[in-house]
Amino acid sequence: MKRVTSVIATSLAIGLSFGAQAGTLEDVQKRGNVSCGVSTGLAGFSQKDEHGTWSGLDVDVCRAVAAAVLGDASKVQYKPLTAKERFTALQSGEIDILSRNTTWTHTRDTSLGLNFAGVNYYDGQGFMVSKDLGVKSALELDGAAVCIQAGTTSELNLADYFRANGITYKAITFDTSDQTRGGFESGRCDVLTSDQSQLYALRIGLKDPASAMVLPEVISKEPLGPVVSQGDDAWFNVVRWSLMAMVEAEFLGIDSASADKAKAEGNPSQKRLMGSEGDSGSKMGIPAEWGYNIVKQVGNYAESFERNVGTGSPLKISRGLNAQWNKGGIMYSSPVR
Amino acid sequence: MKEFKPLPAQPAPNDTIGPIHWMKENLFSSPVNTIVTLAIIAFFATVIPPLVDWLFISANWVGNTQSACTNENGACWVFVIAWSKQFFYGSYPVEEIWRVNLCLIGLVAIIIASFKLNKDLRNKIAIPLFLLLPFISILFLDGSWIGLEYVSTDYWGGFTLNVLLAAASIIVAFPLSFLWALGRRSDMPFIRSVSIVLIEFFRGVPVLALFFMGSVMLPLFFPEGTNVDKLVRVWIVLTLFMSGYMAEVFRGGFQAVPKGQYEAADSLGLNFWQKTLLIILPQVIKISMPNILATFVMLFKNTTFLLIIGIFEMLSTTQTALTNSNWLGGHSTEGYLFVAVVFWICCFSMSMISNSIERKLDTSHKN
Asked: If contacts are CB pairs under 8 Å, which of residues 156-185 in chain A contact chain B?
C-alpha cells in the first residue's frame, strides 16, 4: 500500500514538474507572439498613444523578448493589467511576462510563485517641493504638509523616514495621482511624495513645471523589473538575457545604428553578443542572432531609456542610478560568453 | 327693441400683461424674492461668461499634438479630438472599424424595427434577431470564425465597447431573468430555493466585487492552460448581475397581473407554458417596461466600472490618455467632461425612448 502511494506520489510529482516545464518558450514559438502584461497607462513606462501603439521602458522589455525569440519585436500581445490583477494573470498563464513597474521585494519573489528576471529601472521614493519654499533637503521639512496617494507603500515609507529622522509631518491623502497633483498645485501641501519616476510625470502636469523641484533624497529602494512564473527556467533565462543584452550592448557601445557593423566586423565580445560568433542562442533554444535582433529593432538600454523617459521624452529623467556601472550608476550585465 | 351689442374685446390693462408684469409677479413679488432673484442673476453672471469663454471662445480646437493648445485660458479640445478614435473604438484596427459600425447599426436597426414592424413580424423576426444579436456581433468583431481578419479582444475598446457590452448583457439577461423570476414563484422547493439564492447573491454583491471575482479569482480555478477571455468573463458577470436585478423587476410584474388573468387562462384549459407565455408574459413586460429600461440605464453606466480591471472602455481609455507622456498637460477636466457629456446624451435619450414606449403601451384604466 505504501509503495502504491509512493508510486502515485512520484508519478504525480513527475507529471507536475513536466507540466510546469512544458515550456513557455515552446508555447511562445508555437503561438508566434509574446503575451505581455503591462500597465493600463504609466507615463514613460507603458503607455498607449492615440493610434493605439504601445511604447515605454517596460514595453521595450517585452519587445526585446519578442525580438530575441521570434525575430520580430512587433509580435507582442499587450495585456493591460491593473495592480491587483497582475500576479494572477501570470499565475494563471494568461501572460508570459509581467513587465509592469513591479517592485522586486522578498515577499513577492518568495511566496507568489514567480521570479524576477532582472531590474530594468532602479526607482526610489522622492519628494517634490515648490521652489518658493526654499528647501534644499528633505530633512528641512519639519512640520510640513505632505500630499500622498492613499494605500501605497509610499505612505509607509514616508512614516518610517520621518520617524527615523525625528521630524513631524502632516499627511494629506488623495485617491489618485491626478488629485494628488491637484492638491499640491492648489497649495494644500508643501511637499508631494511618490516614486521618483512618477514625480517627474506629475511635475510636467503642473501649470508651471519650473516652479517645482525634486529633492535629491531617495528614501526607499524600488527596483522595478520584469517577472516570469517560477519553475520555467528556460523561459526565465530568455527573459533575463534579453534584458541583459540591452544593457550589455550599451556597455559594448553597440546601438541600433551600429548593430550591423558590430555584427560583421566588431570585436570578439561584440560579435558574441550579435550572434556572429559563439552559440549563445542555441544554448537558450532561440535563434543565434537574438542579440542582434534586440539591438537592431529595440535598441540598447540607453536608447530605450532616453527615448521613453530620458532626454528624448517629455519626462527628462536623468540616468542617475540607472547609468552604466562605469558611469556612476549600477546597471551592470554579466558578459555573454 | 334695442339690439344687444357686446362691447369689442378690450386689451388687458397694461399692468397685468407683458414680460414686465410677469417678472413683477414671479421674480420680484416680495423683498425676499427680489434678493433671491438678484443673487441668482449675479451667480449666473459670474459663472456663465467665463465658462462659455473656457468651453468655446478661448478653447483650442485645431491641431493634433499638445503643443497646439496655445491658449492656456481655454479648454484643450485638441486632446479629445486627437484621441477620439481611441475614445470611440479603442485600438480596433482602423481598416476593420466597419465591423464595429455594422454591429452598432444592427443594434439600432433592430430596435427601430421592433417599433415599426407589425406584431406578427415583430414576434417572428425582430425578437429572434434581437436574441441572436450578441452572438452575431461576437462573430463579426472577432472575425476568426467567419474568415475575416482575427481581432483579439485586447484591441476592442472605447465607447462602442460600453454600448455593445451593455446591449449583449441585457439581451442575454432578459430570458435568464425571466426564468429566475418564474423559478422564484414556483411551487417546487428546489427550483425556488436555487432561484432565490441566485437572485439574492447577484443582487446583494456589489458589481465591483463581482468584477474582481471574474477577473482575479476565476482564472485561478481553471486548470492551467485554459484561459477564458477576460472580456467573456466580464460579460458573464454583467449578465448574471443584470439578471438578478431584472428578475426582481419581473417578479414585481408577475405580482401586478390580476389573479383573474391566471384563473381565466386556467379555465380555458391552457397548460402552464401556454398560460405563462401567451397570457401572463405580455402583461408582465408591459407593466415592467419602465423599470426594465431604468435598470438598463444603470447597467449601461456600470460598464464604466470595467476600468478597475484594465479593460479599455471609454473611461479607462480617458485615464490612459491622461497618462501618456506626450499629453501630460493636465487635460483631465476636458477628458472627463467629454465622457460625462457622451454618457449623459445616451442615458437621456434612453429615458426619452422609455417614456415613449410607456405611453405607447399604456392601456391601463388610469383615466
From this structure: 178, 181
Same domain, yes or no, for A164 and A137? yes
Report d(CA A21, CA A235) in Å as an integer.
9
Dist. CA A148–CA A189, nearest whole Å: 10
Cβ atoms B103, B140 nearer than 8 A: yes
Whether residue A156 has pLDDT greater than 80: yes
Q: Is A334 on the interface with B (CB under 8 A)?
A: no
Give me the residue from A84, A93, A309 closest to B216, CB to CB: A84
Residue B334 is assigned to a structural domain of this protein: yes
Instruction: Test A40 with B310 for CB contact under 8 angstroms.
Output: yes
Q: Which three cell numbers stand for residue A32?
A: 508566434
Please determine, for residue B102, whether its predicted confidence score (pLDDT) is greater than 80. Answer: yes
Q: Which domain holds residue A181?
A: 125-220
Instruction: Quote the mean pLDDT of chain B.
Output: 88
Calpha distance A296→A70 (Å, rounded): 14
pTM as predicted: 0.85
The domain that contains A135 carries what CATH number?
Answer: 3.40.190.10
Residues of B with CB under 8 A from a CB of A: 72, 82-83, 85-86, 90-91, 152, 154-155, 212, 215-217, 219-220, 222, 224-225, 227, 230, 307-312, 316, 319-326, 328-330, 332
**A184 part of a folded domain:** yes
pLDDT at A10: 43
DSSP-derived secondary structure for A96-154:
SEE-S--B--HHHHHHSSEEE---SEEE-EEEEEEGGG---SGGG-TTEEEEEETTSHH
Write out chain A residues lying below 8 Å of B95, CB-based.
none
Chain B residue with CA closest to A22: the answer is B225
- Band (pLDDT 50/70/90 cuts) for residue A111 is very high
User: Same domain, yes or no, for A113 and A54?
Assistant: yes
Q: How far apart are CA A151 and CA A148, in angstroms?
A: 9
Which residues of chain B have a CB within 8 Å of the CB of A51? 85
Judge whether A335 lies within some domain.
Answer: no
Q: Do A205 and B329 count as a contact with CB atoms less than 8 A apart?
A: yes
The distance of A42 to chain B (nearest Cα, Å) reads 6
Percent of chain B with pLDDT over 70: 97
> What is residue A138's predicted lDDT score, i.e. its pLDDT?
87
pLDDT digits (tens, 9 = 90+) for A213-225: 888 888 999 999 9
What's the rounded Cα separation, in Å, for the pair A182 and A205?
Answer: 10
Averaged over A208-212, what is the pLDDT? 86
* Residue B274 is assigned to a structural domain of this protein: yes
Are residues B326 and A19, on separate chains, in Cβ contact within 8 Å? Answer: no
Of the pLDDT bands very low, low, confident and very high (cuts 50, 70, 90), residue B367 is very low
Q: Residue A24's closest chain B neighbor by CA? A: B225
Closest alpha carbon within chain B to A205:
B329
